[in-house]
Amino acid sequence: MKNTAMVVADGGILLLDLSYSPSNQVVIGQTITPIVTAFDSARHELTPPAGQLQFTSFDTAIASVDLSTGVVTGNDPGTATIEVNDVTTGAITFATVTVTPIPVTHINLSPTSGAVSYLQGTTLQLTATPQDAADNVLTLPAGALIWSSSNPNIATVSSTGLVSAGTSGGSATITVTYGANDVAGAVTVSADGDISTLNLSYSPSSQVAAGQTITPVVTAFDAAGNKLTLPVGTQFQFSGLSNGIASVVSSTGVVTGLNAGTATIEAIDVATGANGLATVTVSGTTPTPTPTPLPVNHIDLSPAGERSVICRARRFN
Known about the structure:
Low-confidence stretches: 4-10
Number of strands: 29
Largest sheet: 6 strands, antiparallel
Oligomer: single chain
Mean pLDDT: 85
């Protein structure tokens, strides 16, 4: 579209004509170049001296323009009026430019799936690749992509696509949308929530002979019943209600059988207070140790010839 204006001036440029190449339409983030034609009062075409023309945009949010070169950059969808002015003669004219959205047809997300853990503090960085119909990768302005989660209690996502676990376990769909034309990409991530319950068992079994030991196996679950992967260093506190049946090491949960019967062992997660119980069965009784006789090398008798004798045993190491 061309616009021509005329002002009264003493010689020099009286008329200006402004258009843009390749057209008056520009995609967000792209540029178009001005074509300015100048005429005198007799409609003779003139070449404006360098620096004699100045350009202005009436809406820089839509389209910005370089003051001296007139190059227009698309910023946001819409229309903007561009003015060119001859600073010497006052000749002035205008052109309307239209800014269109970047032609995104689909958005690829990578990785295509993943997991995050509240317990281990892990995160997942998603990368969005917008493309056009020919699969050309497109560059969008900062903030053009909008990220969202179908369930922030399970997984949250930042404005840059960084996914973190919420407080509940399960799976959530992370979606990225290019708002200009509602093109979207999505992935499903799974997440560990906080420890809610513990399952306590023993290896190789919950039965132990008196004097022998068994080792605890602790499995944690979140509120939704999802099995959790415990980070290294998770601390549990163990205790026993055994009445002399079994003893338990409070820090490790190792159980030693003492006397025949059953005992209840409890495990508590130090961080959350979640607990679990197990019943162990002890068979037999702890055998009484047989004393080891002292090695006797010889016996001295004193005094010789008496009816009563005193025996002294000497131990030699």
